[in-house]
Design brief:
The protein is α/β, with parallel strands linked by helices. It has helices spanning 3-11, 14-25, 36-46, 69-82, 93-96, 109-113, 142-145, 153-156, 159-172, 174-177; strands spanning 32-34, 57-62, 87-92, 124-127, 133-136, 148-149, 182-183. The longest helix has 14 residues, at 69-82. The two termini are 19 Å apart.
Length: 186
């Protein structure tokens, strides 16, 4: 899968475009729709399931050193109230390195996304000021398109981070929803 194909999937889905338009209006710096929202949407679409089946989580990241952690919690609550059909999760990546063992503070949202546990979760998109769709996929789109679960290089270089990958895979039980998933270590 290439970026143009991914963009077509996103643009052809009214819910995805609505989310991207909402996010584009937020006054949050370096703001992206990311992670499971995009991963699950694409896996559902590619496997012939309804794109938004059993998914209400909307993962949003931003990066703003001037924005206190508590303010992102308020943004999540405000979005949940205004757009209650979704469970919004807004995270300021300035603080999130603390949840990733032995990880230095992130330099941007994209730096944080590249250090998510799985390559298929390390994906983000947004509408820029010109209304163009931007896709950030530091490990490409092949794992996502081919239903391959693989730890990111950042996860693999530390036993504690790799353990987080394995715990997430076990906890999420993705193979129940997408039985075609397969694991790859390399």
């Amino acid at each position: 899968m290439n970026t143009a194909e991914m963009e077509a999937y996103l643009r052809n889905d009214p819910t995805m475009m609505r989310l991207l338009k909402i996010i584009a209006t937020l006054p949050l710096k370096d703001c992206w729709l990311c992670a499971g929202t995009i991963r699950n949407f694409l896996w559902n679409t590619l496997s012939g399931q309804p794109a938004w089946q059993a998914q209400k989580d909307v993962d949003v990241v931003c990066f703003d050193p001037a924005l206190p952690y508590e303010e992102t919690e308020k943004w999540s609550a405000t979005l949940r109230k205004t757009y209650s059909e979704f469970h919004w999760e807004v995270k300021n990546e300035v603080y999130m390195h603390q949840h990733n063992p032995q990880t230095l503070p992130y330099a941007s949202s994209c730096d944080a996304i590249a250090k998510f546990p799985e390559t298929v979760t390390a994906i983000a998109c947004r509408l820029n000021a010109a209304g163009q769709l931007e896709i950030f996929a530091p490990y490409g789109l092949n794992d996502l398109a081919n239903f391959v679960l693989r730890p990111t290089p950042h996860a693999k270089e530390n036993p504690q981070r790799l353990a987080i990958f394995y715990r997430r895979v076990a906890k999420k039980n993705w193979t129940t929803l997408w039985p075609q998933l397969r694991y790859a270590e390399n």
